[in-house]
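hey so u asked for the seq, here:
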Amino acid sequence: MLLATVAGLIVTIWTFGATGFADIITVARRLGLGGFFLFCAWSLGTFFLLGAAWLAAAPGEQTARIGRFTWARMLREAVSDLLPFSQLGGIVVAARSLTVAGIPTPRVYGSLVVDLTTEMAAQLVYTLFGLALMASLLIGDGTAVSLRPAILGGTAIMVAIILFFFVAQRSALDLTGRIGERFIPGSQVAFGDIRAELARIYLRRDRVAVAFGFNLAAWVASGVGGWLALHLMGVPISLLDVLSLESLIFTLRSVAFFIPGALGVQEVAYALAAPLFGLPPESALALSLAKRARDVAIGLPTLLCWQFAEARQIAVRADRP
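ran it, structure tokens below
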């Protein structure tokens, strides 16, 4: 993970340098402090949608706990984007934050699996929407032809990952339980409880559909956030073009899930794909820079609060007789 982070950082610096640091900074500065705060506020609203999606996948939890689930999603993204743990580390930390809050472990992990499944399914719908908007570019003989293998290949990999995750999730829990039993006696019972909870949640098709709807709304809201940032920078581009571009960027980021924060992948994708939609590379990289700054502005306080909460938990356990 550390090597991937360093490599991504090198690629990012190279991409910014090849495009022109001065040009990128000139565009990014147009966002202004007020515009940046507005962009961050929009992103916080998107986290609320993501928290609602996870809560919907957890039947039995009260609506009043949406703040707790929203916090868990913020923590998941902060760990994934700012720490060298990849997306898996963020998922583990987010799940722990809910179990520490007193939510039963089988419900946390069962709902987590359903939330991840509906999130990926929603992303697939969003990606197909983007590909439909890009159909004329991909079929034609323009610049998009050189990117067609990466675009279609990335989409195919994402579809394969989603299908594998959906088909193998129950079997994977059984296998993990059997392996864990060899090292931690009694762990297979815990995995059995999670599997039973997972089956119970899937029987609630209405809740699964609501989780899918909230996740889809979050994907679209993220794309709209990109358009908002570009609009505040004074970059003229249509909302549909930004939604199409963002669907492509999100797809490539998902395929590169093993690279913390998709560092380097996001920047190269913006530099290569943005001109297809009439967006200058410096404007696209200014958007990428604004996203990185937003991730730090939201993620760093989130990580600090998480560490404070962990330290308090340790202190409480140490005080117990």
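DSSP finds 13 helices and no strands in the chain. The two ends are 39 Å apart (CA to CA).
lmk if thats what u needed
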